[in-house]
Design goal:
By secondary structure, the chain is α+β, with helices and mostly antiparallel strands. The protein contains 18 helices and 28 strands.
């Protein structure tokens, strides 16, 4: 049956994955295809092959794929029995395993293009010729079904689009993303490192990175103070029974580090801060007059991530959250959620994220209780209060309640999940939390869990890529570099630097004896917002020559005028 409608991009990319597998079968008959889905911006296909795929192999595969696309093969599907599917892939244990595990009653289908047949549930373009433009981008390792105890496969990534113009635009964005890669810039700008001698996924903040982190923390602390949060600090390691009560051992153990034996008792590195904050709440009797009670902590937590998924700052094993937990009466829940949402928007705007998306994640039907509706209603009303559109992720909530995720788009249009706010009736019950109500009866408080930047490590990594390492002046670890044309003006350059430091700015005076051009290039590669040059005329006039990042025109102004200009820029968070 002819289908003249335009295929969706996921359908187009799924078809491209089949075309890739066809090409691999033709050129490398020893390779066993496994799975090949469409993903955001592209597709991949995993293969079991002894020899690694090389860049030359990818070029050969692209040429063969072009031939398959040009042939405009129809994508032909037919339903088969489980036995027929297993027999069809008798030489491919991966496909046979998939066929055996398809649930009873679910159709089992084979799709064929040319001489290549694949086990697939469908969702394709009508023919291979619908693929307008494609490109194979990389090869990586991947365990079969994501299990490190199973065979390591080779994953070929690619992208497919309706036409060459769209492909070219995407590849340009990809190239820009590589230039902005926080792992690359983190090393070039001396911001942080992952030291393998200490273990993967553990971050070492270098001085300049620590400065930026401190600025982020100070900004967040300011908002917390204004909204009545009280700082707390909890241990990094606690008794395991705390996580038995909370339910984390039952629901989250695969993401926790193993037990630590201390005097025949079992302890754990904390994966969450909430049980610690709950214990502080329980440490004394609470009255309705105490509520809402807001505890905040830049709490470092530890979660077990497999080495294959670790990625710079954005996927680590030890990280610090701007965590806070609010304890309130049911009547206060709505107002507390609204002020938390307002603070999240303030944070994201201040750090240059202007486009947000909101996702309400509900708990799965089998986990829902009567309080879920109350929690979801509070989230929906808070979003309505600010007239914010949102999506619903059915079943995506935490084990202790529904949540609101706040996603941002960076300068390249990529979406990142940052802030999370969760409403929790479950843990107050598990820990038997109480407050004395106005009628003298004990009541149960409601908890709100909130981490607005989320992981500071992840937040910092996203900021590096969002700004391409060129942080705005208020956030830059070095705001001003001062350099002299020759050593004769160095003393004046130091005076300028001291004056700026005295005004509260982060300054570095270049005392090297290199040529001026070399020094300016160096500070530009370090992405410093302002480079001030001092020569004979500047010394005589009490001025500085200003090289401002992103501005071609140089200008000479009095030092006092520059101090005022920089102060206004920083105060405006620019």
């Amino acid at each position: 049956m002819n289908d003249d409608r335009r295929p969706t991009l996921p359908e187009l990319r799924h078809t491209a994955a089949h075309v890739l597998a066809y090409a691999v079968q033709d050129l490398f008959p020893d390779a066993k295809p496994t799975i090949g889905p469409a993903i955001e911006n592209g597709f991949y296909y995993d293969f079991d092959r002894t020899e690694p795929f090389t860049p030359d192999d990818l070029a050969r595969l692209e040429r063969r794929m072009s031939e398959i696309v040009a042939a405009d093969y129809p994508m032909l599907g037919r339903e088969v029995t489980r036995g027929e599917a297993i027999e069809a892939f008798a030489a491919n244990p991966y496909k046979a395993e998939i066929a055996r595990e398809i649930p009873d009653g679910e159709p089992i289908t084979l799709y064929t293009i040319g001489e290549f047949a694949d086990l697939c549930r469908g969702g394709h373009a009508e023919t291979t010729g619908r693929i307008g433009a494609f490109k194979l981008t990389s090869v990586a390792g991947a365990y079969w079904r994501g299990d490190e105890h199973k065979p390591m496969l080779q994953r070929i990534y690619g992208t497919a689009w309706y036409d060459a113009e769209e492909l070219s635009a995407y590849l340009a964005r990809l190239e820009e993303a590589q230039r902005r890669d926080h792992r690359k810039l983190g090393a070039e700008l001396d911001l942080y490192s992952i030291e393998e001698d200490a273990g993967g996924g553990l971050v070492f903040w270098h001085p300049k990175g620590a400065i930026v982190r401190g600025i982020i923390e100070a900004f967040i602390r300011e908002g917390l103070h204004e909204r009545g949060y009280q700082p707390v600090v909890t241990p990094h390691i606690v008794h395991e029974r705390l996580y038995e009560i909370s339910g984390h051992l039952e629901n989250f153990s695969e993401n926790m580090f193993g037990e630590i034996q201390v005097e025949e008792q079992r302890f754990r590195l904390k994966p969450m801060n909430c049980p610690g904050h709950i214990l502080i709440y329980k440490s004394r009797l609470r009255s309705y007059r105490d509520l809402p009670l807001r505890f905040s902590e830049f709490g470092t937590v530890y979660r077990f991530e497999r080495s294959g998924v670790l990625h710079g700052l954005t996927r680590v094993r030890g990280f610090t959250q701007d965590d806070a937990h609010l304890f309130c009466t049911p009547d206060q829940l709505q107002g507390e959620f609204e002020q938390t949402l307002d603070e999240a928007r303030r944070l994201m705007n201040a750090f240059g994220f202007g486009e947000f998306a909101y996702v309400l994640s509900t708990r799965s039907p089998d986990a829902r209780t009567e309080t879920d509706e109350v929690a979801e209603d509070a989230i929906r009303k808070a979003l309505a209060h600010y007239d914010l559109p949102f999506e619903v992720d059915e079943g995506g909530g935490a084990f202790y309640g529904p949540k609101l995720d706040i996603n941002v788009r960076d300068a390249l249009g990529r979406s990142w999940q940052l802030g999370t706010v969760q409403v929790d009736f479950i843990l107050p019950a598990r820990f038997d939390l109480k407050y004395r109500a106005s009628d003298g009866q004990d009541r149960r408080p409601v908890m709100i869990h909130r981490a607005l930047a989320g992981s500071l490590e992840r937040f910092f990594g996203i900021l590096i890529e969002h700004y391409g390492g060129a942080f705005p002046a208020w956030l830059a670890p070095v705001q001003v570099a001062v350099t002299a044309i020759s050593q004769e003006q160095l003393a004046y350059a130091k005076e300028v630097g001291a004056r700026l430091e005295g005004a509260g700015f982060r300054v570095q005076v270049d005392e090297s004896n290199e040529k001026l051009g070399y020094k300016i290039r160096h500070w530009k590669t370090q992405k410093v917002p302002y480079i001030l040059v001092t020569g004979k005329q500047e010394v005589a006039d009490g001025t500085v020559n200003v090289n401002q990042r992103g501005v071609d025109e140089k200008r000479t102004i009095p030092v006092a005028a520059f101090v005022d200009e920089l102060r206004r820029t920083v105060e405006a968070k620019q």
